[in-house]
Amino acid sequence: MFAAAEFAPEIFGVSSDRLFAISGALVTPALGFLFLYVLRLPLASLPGIETPSDWKPPRWVLPVFALISTAAVVFTAATGLTLEVAPARPPLDEVNGHFALLRDVPTADFKAVRSIVVSVDDYDGASDFRVISNGYVQFSTSTNCLMNYQCKASDAALSPEAISMLNGPPLKYPSLFRVKQFFRLPVRLDVTNFAAPGSNFIDIIVGNSGIGDCRLAISVSLSDGGAVKRTFTLSISDGVGGGVSLRADAAAMETFFSVSKPQASALAPAVHPIYRTFEADPSFRLCQRIRLIIPLSADQLAWRSGEEWTRWAQDRRRREDCQVRNGTERDCGN
Predict the structure, then answer these.
(1) In this structure, are 231 and 311 located in the same domain?
(2) Which residue segment(s) compose the domain that 79 sits in?
(3) What is the pTM of this model?
(4) Measured between alpha carbons, how far is 25 from 23 in angstroms, rounded to an integer?
């Protein structure tokens, strides 16, 4: 029994594997008809048709059968091969858009990029978010904002709980190693050494907490160490906003909305046009996924020596390991 490969490309419900099987089944009769036609041998009977013993097919039958069977072999094989080589794909921007909204950061006017800093400026205090630079988690609520006194504005008063935790004994639990750090906003994250020649990604992923929609403000600053500096501010609002481009150049300031449009009817629930979430059911849903793409050339990073980067990476690894093992800021050299 024929079994098609999983996820094989199809046309009109017929997979490429099925087309190859049909082509293979037609090869033998096609070669037979061609053999008779080329050697000018008579066709004694028609395959699958019972005829009187003294009946002979007309002369035109053999070339017609040879032509049709050969064309069928070529057509099915060529169609199957076309499906395999050039399968239908949706536009790249549409695919990327369903992963994240893409914003291209212009860097052509930078002779060197000596600083890339991400700043967490505002946060609703309840939703879940992560800032990821080239696959490295730089900041996340599950680690940095675990306690209710963390990730507050710099002028917010310390709660009795925070003071008690700060003065209490060390916690010997690796999963809680940052609970003694307050992470007062704005939090500045230097991600320069995570950059590499080529396309660099800063991902901002924000999810609803279940008790209110997302509010977050993050700025990304690039500098050449001198006069050239550019800052991009991305604000995620808990309000209702209109449509947004899947991919565009990064703007100096851009606001993204957690809710795309008002709920029109309970009988016809509104669906987010990008993430396919229901607007009437906001609890624990994705608010926004935004990816900043920062292209950098080897020349723009030529100021950084391999030796310096290796020392930085080793020092970072030592500090992170020390903190996870519940070392204090003094012990870990912060």
Answers:
(1) no
(2) 10-47+54-85
(3) 0.68
(4) 5
The verdict on 192 and 328 lying in the same domain is no
Characterise 328 by phi-psi region: left (phi > 0), alpha (psi -120 to 50), beta (else): beta
Cα separation, 304 vs 219, whole angstroms: 24
Cα–Cα distance, 134 to 126 (Å, whole number): 26
For 138, half-sphere exposure in the C-beta direction (CA atoms, 13 angstrom radius) is: 26
DSSP states along 47-76: TT----TT----TTHHHHHHHHHHHHHHHH
User: Within a domain: residue 154?
Assistant: no
pLDDT at 1: 36
Regarding whether 42 and 105 lie in a shared domain, the answer is no
Q: Average of pLDDT values for 265-283?
A: 73
Q: Are residues 138 and 236 in the same domain?
A: yes
Local structure of 179: helix, strand or coil: coil
Instruction: Give per-residue pLDDT as tens, 188-232.
Output: 999 999 999 999 999 999 998 777 778 999 999 999 988 779 999
The reply to whether 240 and 288 lie within a common domain is yes
Same domain (yes/no): 75, 116: no
Strands (E), the chain: 10-11, 14-15, 101-104, 115-123, 128-133, 136-140, 187-190, 198-207, 216-223, 229-240, 247-249, 253-259, 286-296
